[in-house]
């Protein structure tokens, strides 16, 4: 289905397999299962995917605005050149349910309690996002942009943050002895937390 048509019916989603240049507005797909769907150049506005299962679905050049994808279950889902803005994506296991390449950007969104463990996220953009208790263990994310993010209790262990941008990020706890930080940029006063593993006292 194409031609820029605006779709608001959940039944249309369940009946179609290929969507191109479509705007979805106000859809509530909570608890539904979407299987083997193809979406390209589509836009999602104020849609709900709470606990939705995305099985072998592909999204390319898609944009989500003010959507709720919390606890969405991903099974072999593909995301290429996709953007999320002002959306909730709490508790999503991106690490276990997505295929590579994974090219996604997030802005002003809440990704708390989500897992990106062991993923390759080179140059990923997560600007001004809430990432509380997110898991970045053993994640390769050189040149990532985490500027302005809330990283309270986010897990960084064996993480490659070389040349990453963490300016104006806050509440992070990153051990320089357990992670790669060469060339990474931080802002004061939050950057002082990097000294905690060394038991340094700064007056």
Walkthrough of the structure:
This protein is mainly β and 203 residues long. Helix 2 links the parallel strand 11 (78-85) and strand 12. Strands 1, 2, 3, 5, 6, 8, 9, 11, 12 and 13 form a ten-stranded parallel sheet that branches. A three-stranded parallel sheet has the order 4-7-10. Strands 14-15 form a two-stranded parallel sheet. The mean pLDDT is 91. It has helices at residues 10-15, 94-97; strands spanning 6-7, 18-20, 23-25, 33-35, 38-40, 43-45, 53-55, 58-60, 63-65, 73-75, 78-85, 103-107, 125-127, 165-166, 185-186.
Which key terms come to mind for this protein?
mainly beta; Pectate Lyase C-like; 2 domains; three-stranded parallel β-sheet; 2 helices; elongated; 5peptide_repeat; PA_immunity-related; Pentapeptide repeat-containing protein
Question: How do you describe this structure in short?
Answer:
Helices cover 5% and strands 24% of the residues. It has two helices and 15 strands.
DSSP strand tally: 15
Secondary-structure content class: mainly beta
| Morphology call | elongated
What percentage of amino acids are in beta strands?
15-25%
What's the CATH class of the largest domain, please?
A: Mainly Beta
Number of structural units classed as domains: 2
- Per CATH, the superfamily of the largest domain is E3 ubiquitin-protein ligase SopA
Question: What is the CATH architecture annotation of the largest domain?
Answer: 3 Solenoid
Radius of gyration: 18 Å
The number of helical segments is 2
